[in-house]
Amino acid sequence: MQPHLISSFATCLLASSLCALELPNPLAGADGQVATTPDAWQKSVRPQTLQIFREQVYGVRPVAKPAGFQAKVLREDPQALEGLATLKEIEITFTGPNGSAKIHPVLLIPNAAKAPAATFLLFGFVKPDPLEKSNISGGWPVREILTRGYATVAFCVSEVDPDRADGFAGGVRAIFGNSPRPANAWGSLSAWGWGASRIMDYLETDPAINAKRVAVIGHSRCGKAALWCGAEDTRFTYVISNNSGCSGAALARGKMGEKISDITSHFPYWFCENYRQFSNHEERLPIDQHQLLGLIAPRLLYVASATQDDWADGKSEFESCVRASPVYALFGKPGIEATSLPPPDQALLGGTIAYHMRSGKHDLAVSDWQHYMDFADKHWKP
Predict the structure, then answer these.
(1) How far apart are the C-alpha atoms of 349 and 375, rounded to whole Å?
(2) What count of other Cβ atoms lies within 10 Å of the Cβ of residue 346?
(3) In CA terms, which of 92, 101, 251, 360 is 20 to 30 Å from 172?
(4) How far apart are CA 305 and CA 146, in angstroms?
(5) Residue 189 burial (CB count, 10 A)
(6) Cα separation of 339 and 14, whole Å?
(7) Is the separation of the CB atoms in 29 and 354 below 8 Å?
(8) In 19-105, which ranges are E strands?
(9) Which of 5-19, 118-132, 143-157, 211-225 comes out lowest in average pLDDT?
């Protein structure tokens, strides 16, 4: 630990707009013990905090990489996108006590790469199609990503677990689930993150990919899933939350717009059943979302908001970054570089936590991607 970083952070925190909020200490475990070294954080506080999120918010996963896991390349095109990339259509099969299922991520690797490529893994709402001219759905600007020298892979989350209230029987939760389901059983957000981890299992075997430099990214509900994925799976060394809002990057306490009562009423299947008990009672939560961001430490983290996205509450997302910064300071790393909300479209890239608020609506735009890649350039390129 470097005390001067903690002191500097604490001084700056006094100027923060939401500093009056009483929040759980991100350096304290459920047992009340406060970590003063990175080792104490990793061995005690982190696992305790992670388990609370499992039990009370996202649910407990019954399995990691299953024994029935298989991955293979179904089709490869070495001259995709007019020779810009090598395209691989992958099939991942997982088998459990109640059946099996497949997911079909699509991977593109820049042909100009002279070494194994760093990669952006996107949670998508639709079947990935890199040959679409616009790629508006899901916000996947493959040409821009490839031109910057990065590989990219995307998958449709509904292949892992259908994104609807009656979708349980058609997804991975049913394959590895029991009936009746306990109140801490995993929800769809955790299932989608589990699917991303199975894609990571494949990426670790592909010699064209630098598996030590894989970023996981999601927008909106998928941004929530990306954060939880990054918390559960530390192999992802860069985690990106785009407009994730309630139960994602935004604090629960003091939040404007969407609250726990709203999200658990409309999308109860995203979470474990236990989460409902905090509807209209955010103050009873044993944790808050800044601690979720802290679980990413000391890895790279980027949180982004939008000016017209009041439902997500960008101010709360930014404040969550500020409140997570002491965990990064514990590792001797700067968290977010400012404690006052920056002007729209001004990216804060100077810390290990990056942030920007884009002008516009709830969306994943090419300009967002450019900032995410700028941050990757800063840390991953000479």
Answers:
(1) 6
(2) 13
(3) 251
(4) 24
(5) 32
(6) 9
(7) no
(8) 70-79, 85-96, 99-103
(9) 5-19
The residues that are catalytic are 220, 362
For the purposes of burial, counting CB atoms within 10 Å of the CB of 284, is it exposed (0-12), middle (13-18) or buried (19 or more)? exposed
**DSSP notation for 235-301:** T--EEEEES--TTTTS-STT--SS-HHHHHHH-GGGS-GGGGGGTT-GGG-S--HHHHHHTTTTSEE
| Contacts by residues 87-90 (CB-CB < 8 Å, ≥ 24 positions apart) | 87/130, 88/206, 90/153, 90/199, 90/202
Do 342 and 357 form a contact (C-beta atoms < 8 A)?
A: yes
Dihedrals phi, psi of 30, to nearest 5 degrees: -65, -25
**Sign of the four-CA dihedral 61, 65, 70, 71:** positive
Per-residue exposure over 90-122, b if at least 16 CB sit within 10 Å of its own CB, e if not? bebebebeeeebebebbbbbbeebeebbbbbbb
Counting Cβ atoms within 10 Å, is residue 361 exposed (0-12), middle (13-18) or buried (19+)? exposed
Q: Kindly report the pTM of this predicted structure.
A: 0.94
Domain boundaries, the chain: 3-380
CA 360 to CA 95: how far, in whole Å?
Answer: 43
CATH class of 3-380: alpha beta
- Summarised one tens digit per residue, pLDDT across range 297-354 is 999 999 999 999 999 999 999 999 999 999 999 999 999 999 999 999 999 999 999 9
Length of the chain: 382
d(Cα 132, Cα 94) in Å, to the nearest integer?
Answer: 29
Q: How far apart are CA 70 and CA 103, in angstroms?
A: 11
Where do we find the tokens 């609250």?
Answer: 259
